[in-house]
Amino acid sequence: MSTPVLLYRLVSPTLLRTLMRRTGTGASVSVRTLAQKAGLPHGTVGNLLTGDQESVAEVSARRIADVIGVDILVLFIPMQRAAASTASPVLADSA
């Protein structure tokens, strides 16, 4: 059985676009340059910016954040694993 992939949802395409205009170094980065430096297809970055794609694998989210120069949690929100367990959660008794 393979390890489930943890997905990260982009906080906001507008935030990504803003941070691309002024990265951690103060320079701007284009869609193609960000994709190239992150080792991703430029379509992935473009789709995140248009909202056609809302999430990426953890490794991709980390690469994007690293290139821009921010912590991953500035740009992305961790989501449930793609292959989530079917077990029911145990809830604490409120009584």
Protein model, in words:
With 95 residues, the protein is an alpha+beta fold. Helix content is 43%, strand content 15%. The protein has five helices and three strands; from the N terminus they run E-H-H-H-E-H-H-E. Helix 2 packs across helix 3 and helix 2 crosses helix 4. The N and C termini lie far apart (40 Å).
List keywords for this structure.
alpha+beta, 434 Repressor (Amino-terminal Domain), three-stranded antiparallel β-sheet, 15% strand, globular
Task: Walk across the major sheet and give the strand order.
Answer: 2-1-3
Mean pLDDT: 86
CATH architecture verdict: Orthogonal Bundle
Give the % helix: 40-55%
Which percent band covers the strand fraction? 5-15%
The CATH topology is given as: 434 Repressor (Amino-terminal Domain)
CATH superfamily: lambda repressor-like DNA-binding domains
pLDDT < 50 stretches: 82-91
For the termini, the CA-CA separation is 40 Å
Domain unit count: 1
Order of helices and strands: EHHHEHHE
